[in-house]
Design brief:
A hairpin with a 2-residue loop joins strand 13 and strand 14. Helix 5 runs parallel beside helix 7. The strands form six sheets. This protein has a seven-stranded parallel beta sheet with strand order 1-5-7-8-9-10-11. The protein has a five-stranded parallel beta sheet with strand order 16-18-19-20-21. It has about 775 residues and is an alpha/beta fold. The chain has 28 helices and 21 strands.
């Protein structure tokens, strides 16, 4: 056992990573969790699957060279790391009642209840984790929240790994970040700040540290990424909270050594605050945040600086020569240096070596989680023997240089087109002109109903796609099966009474990958799964070259769907910013340039959809908020190019063509000007889980175009009753003029089952009819 009083404490490992993908190399955790939810396996089987993944991770990372004690992070989670912190702290909202068992513990069922809700209660709100596509669950904290140690899971996970020969490094979201990411509970008084409960959570953290020390942990990792973000909370309050938190935790009588990690950007002014506390090691994101000055590092004294020089967020091979230079610069300023990743590698797939179908040259440019661990080991070797890493550095430089000359990376015809753009290419007619043309063309009722795009992807659809990919179905056979599903979806929407229909997207495996497979400049993976939230995983595509469209992508599917109905059928496209955000994007040119290339491909697709008779076209941008820089000084430049790329994609549409967009799981108030700047005719926005919070932002802003705040939370299996939807709609019409309002779910229905979907949509239409009737009666 190691604690702060040990005469010879365990040194921080020279090479480590902040975290590792936790879903399993073949999504074993996703399958086990979903089987548990479905009642197909019991809690013991779920626990066994989780332990197998954790031991597999430890073996893999040890084999890659992370062999020192505590080099392997214990960053496993059944669902979400913020939820894990809430579970350990007992932060259970009163609206859920008592989820604790007889021993005062929050068991696995209570844990999942917070994540997924119940028939009566909505789950915790969900939003994006910093500037990533990962979603976390937002704790609800009020003056009444009773903090206590209600879970021992990370201690038990550490003990299990130790019993099997691996001393891992337990991980928990740090106290300041936990409170800054929380929201005030519904019962909290106006102006209440969860950060005001810091003194009440610190004893629980202290008790957990003491348990980990007793179990034999030499190091524990506390993650404080909120310190790299410009917060609404005054900086001096955060500084005081950081100083107090780590004064208390470092003073614990019996604790492991404290390692504080600060991923996703530059720590800036909080570096000195943390350096002055009694922590034992501090991580800084050198890859994204740059090398701190010698003056900023002076306060560390004998503490270990852990340099995040390997990008944990993207998949490109590390420029080892540039990283070596950063390490050499840091060695001049600190007493003890270690090497790590900039962030957890939970944001990238497991292993590029499993993607044998990718071109060999492209594979050589890439580094997934396993390769990043190996890069960290290589760079850590510089600390002991600079000459030993020289061959690896030279090879990395040669491979990186080869990218610039590779075919397809730069296409003259694409670059000539973007260079020729003028202001006129980014602007449509004034909205009143468009509104009049669209009203005449569409003739929709008040509160028009629609869905976001996708309908449930059944086992039959997935099987048909797999059989087509394996050559068991001909192209004609596969297309007929997809048309049969489209016909079913259209008939269902007609029967339910929707006003604007969608074709359901059965032919699409993923809203980004589908386009990546049909645009030049992309490649896709087979096993490159990354966790988005809970058990939901995505396979981000690889955008490595200049982007262009050679043939229409969605037109024939939309044309067929429109032929089945007299109601408007939406054409469905994914916007340029979301395609970038949910792909691994080339790092050799500005993102704005790449976004414009994608936008021009989409502009061509919109023109073809219009020619096919499609009068409404939705260009989804759910990730607009996701890429927003964490520092306010950098945000204006991002919002400028991101908004322009959307306008470039859509500005060629005719006045009578109604352009929709969709955004989800973001703090919309922070970017309401940008949302307005998109100049979409209709914007649908997540609102059900947050109980219509967004309508206050819309009202305050004076948002003047069509808007559909979601009334059905599709990220939970619960079915909202008609009365619940009616109440949400009634709230919306109090703050947004009814002539602007649309009615829709929060997001696409791809992950839901048909039974719950049909019942929920039926309630949505029923509630709309009730509120319409009330509006008509009030207008008399």
């Amino acid at each position: 056992m190691t604690d702060k009083n040990t005469a010879s404490p365990t040194p921080f490992p020279a090479a480590s990573i902040l975290g590792y993908p936790r879903i399993g190399r073949r999504r074993e955790l996703k399958k086990a969790v979903e089987a548990y939810w479905a009642g197909k396996i019991d809690a013991a089987a779920l626990d066994a699957a989780a332990k197998a993944i954790q031991l597999g991770t430890a073996r893999r990372l040890t084999g890659l060279g992370l062999t020192e004690a505590a080099a392997v992070p214990g960053s496993f989670s059944y669902y979400d790391q913020v939820l894990d912190a809430a579970a350990h702290l007992g932060a259970v909202p009163a609206r859920f009642g008592n989820l604790l068992d007889a021993d005062g513990r929050l068991g696995i069922d209570g844990y999942f209840t917070l994540a997924r809700g119940t028939k009566e209660q909505q789950p915790l709100e969900m939003t994006k984790w910093f500037d990533t596509n990962y979603h976390y669950l937002v704790p609800e904290i009020g003056p009444e929240t009773n903090f206590s140690l209600t879970s021992n899971r990370i201690v038990e996970e550490f003990e299990y790994a130790l019993a099997n020969g691996f001393e891992t490094r337990p991980y928990l979201v740090g106290p300041v970040t936990f409170l800054l990411l929380s929201k005030a509970s519904d019962d909290a008084p106006a102006g209440f700040s969860p950060l005001s409960r810091l003194e009440d959570v610190l004893p629980v953290y202290t008790a957990l540290l003491e348990r980990l020390a007793a179990a034999g942990a030499s190091w524990v990792q506390l993650d404080e990424p909120a310190l790299v973000v410009d917060q609404d909370t005054p900086a001096d309050e955060i500084q005081a909270a950081v100083a107090r938190a780590y004064e208390v935790l470092s003073a614990a009588a019996n604790r492991p050594q404290l390692f504080v990690s600060t991923p996703y950007g530059a720590l800036d002014g909080q570096l000195g605050t943390l350096a002055a506390t009694g922590i034992d090691a501090l991580h800084v994101d050198v890859f994204k945040g740059g090398v701190p000055s010698a003056a900023a590092l002076a306060g560390l004294g004998r503490k270990t600086l852990v340099a995040g020089v390997v990008d944990g967020h993207n998949i490109w091979r590390n420029d080892l020569a540039a990283s070596a230079a950063k390490i050499a610069e840091l060695q001049k300023s600190v007493a003890t240096l270690a090497v790590s990743t900039s962030t957890s590698t939970q944001h990238v797939p497991h292993d590029v070596e499993e993607e044998a179908q990718l071109p060999a040259q492209l594979r050589s440019w890439l580094a997934f989680a396993d390769q990043k661990a190996a890069e960290v080991v290589t760079l850590a070797g510089l600390l002991a023997n600079p000459d030993a890493a020289r061959p690896a550095i030279e090879e990395a430089t040669r491979i990186i240089d080869s990218r610039a000359e590779a075919g397809g990376v730069r296409r003259p015809e694409v670059r000539n087109r973007t260079a020729a753009l003028t202001d006129a290419d980014f602007n449509r007619s004034a909205y009143p002109v468009r509104e009049a043309a669209q009203t005449a063309a569409l003739d929709l009722p008040p509160l028009p109903t629609t869905t976001i795009g996708s309908f449930p992807q059944t086992a039959e659809i997935r099987t048909a796609r797999a059989r087509a990919n394996n050559g068991e179905l001909s192209t004609g056979q596969y297309e007929q099966l997809m048309k049969d599903e489209i016909k079913r979806v259209v008939e269902l929407q007609e029967e339910l009474g929707f006003d604007v229909l969608v074709h359901g997207e059965p032919e699409r495996n993923d809203m980004v990958q589908y386009f990546a497979e049909n645009l030049e400049g992309f490649d896709v993976t087979v096993h490159g799964w990354v966790q988005s939230y809970g058990s939901r995983c995505t396979r981000p595509s690889i955008l490595w070259g200049d982007v262009t469209r050679s043939v229409p992508i969605t037109v024939e599917w939309a044309r067929y769907a429109q032929s089945l109905t007299n109601k408007p059928m939406k054409g469905m496209l994914t916007g340029p910013v979301t395609i970038l955000a949910w792909s691994f994007v080339r790092d050799d040119q500005p993102l704005g340039e790449t976004a414009n290339q994608v936008a021009l491909a989409l502009r061509d697709e919109i023109a073809d959809l219009e020619a096919a008779g499609i009068k409404i076209i939705q260009v989804d941008e759910p990730a607009l908020r996701e890429l927003l820089p964490l520092r306010k000084a950098d945000q204006a430049a991002y919002l400028d190019w991101s908004v322009k790329s959307f306008r470039l994609a859509t500005a060629g549409a005719a006045d009578a063509t109604q352009v929709h967009t969709h955004l989800c799981y973001s703090e919309f108030g922070a970017i309401i000007d940008a949302i307005d700047g998109l100049d979409a005719d209709v914007t649908s926005i997540e609102a059900a889980r947050s109980r219509m919070e967004v309508v206050h932002d819309l009202e305050a802003h004076g948002f003047g175009r069509g808007v559909g705040p979601g009334v059905y939370d599709i990220h939970s299996p619960r079915v909202p009753g008609e009365q619940e939807v009616t109440e949400l709609l009634s709230t919306a019409v109090k703050h947004v003029p009814s002539r602007q309002l649309w009615v829709n779910p929060d997001c696409g229905l791809k992950t839901r089952g048909y039974a719950e979907t049909e019942e929920s949509l039926r309630n949505l239409v029923g509630a709309t009819r009730s509120v319409r009737a009330e509006l008509l009666e009030a207008a008399k």
